[in-house]
From TrEMBL:
This is Transport permease protein. Keywords: Antibiotic resistance, Cell membrane, Membrane, Transmembrane, Transmembrane helix, Transport. PANTHER family: DOXORUBICIN RESISTANCE ABC TRANSPORTER PERMEASE PROTEIN DRRC-RELATED, TRANSPORT PERMEASE PROTEIN. It is found in: Cell membrane; Membrane. The chain crosses the membrane at residues 37-56, 68-94, 115-139, 151-171, 183-202, 248-270.
Amino acid sequence: MTLTRTRPDAPAARPVDPRRLLRLARLDMTLLWRNRTALFGVVGLPAFFAVMLLVSDGNGHQSAGVPAVLYTGTGDLAFFLLPAVFMNLVSVFTARREELTLKRLRSGPLSDAEALGGSVLGATALYLAQSAVIVVIIATALDGGLPADPVLMLLGMLLGAVVFALLAMALSGVTPTVEMAQLTVIPVLLVSMLGSGFMFPLEEAPVGVRAVAQVMPLTPAVEIARTAYLGRDFTVDGDHGALGLVETWTACVPALLTLAAWIVVGAWLARRYFRWEPRRG
């Protein structure tokens, strides 16, 4: 059964009730807190990177013209999409499908968008909270100041959350059990860590590798977060020079378009592979 199939007793489209979304998001946070294994992956990994920022003195090392620890910190603002949104939702959707929870939610008063949107809202709120901690660390402990363009930074983060929520829906559909969900996310996690530029400048990579990295889903989110925060051109082919407000948005247009393209791709994959009921066979 696909994401677009509707119940015979329900209209094709129903209005979304924000109160229901908030209640489901709050329920998700409660269940996550009670699941220590899931909590470790979703919260433990970002906490580890946050602690590394606090204890690292950088040793004067530079990355792309800025302190290495500041470079990594601004990359964390996008990287946290993986544990908080992607890894979290793959496990949530897989577990609820196998436990028939999704089927029961769908057979009740909730619309499809509400049944899934509550989890997405909760994961996104968790991601934004983790990112807020990093902003505080950058602004205080790292003396990096506040974001130069918080609106652009937030836009990139939210678009990234949409992308990885859709990819999580798709991957959950081909993940047979919640135990396997811990493994199926690993390739995406490793490739994103190595190829998105969140820790190491992609400009040092071979041209072919850089071209592939530019179209990966996490890379544009990293570009936007770092460029918007530092007010300098940190797109893959940027010169790291200072930018004005309009120049910052202009520099990030390709990254914004890449995220928009991934939203289209992610929506197609979710429609194709997401399942409401347990896998058979």
